[in-house]
Amino acid sequence: MRTLVIGDIHGGLLALEEVLEKASVTSEDTLIFLGDYVDGWSQSAETVTFLMELQKKMNCVFIRGNHDELLYNYLKHDQDLETWLIHGGEASKKSYQKLSKKEIKQHIKFFESLEFYHVDAKNRLYIHGGFSNHRGPKYEYYPHMVMWDRSLWEMVCAMDPSLTPGDLYYPNRLKYFHEIYIGHTPVTRIGETTPTRFANVWNIDTGAAFKGALSIMDVDTN
Question: Range of 97's domain?
Answer without folding.
Answer: 3-218
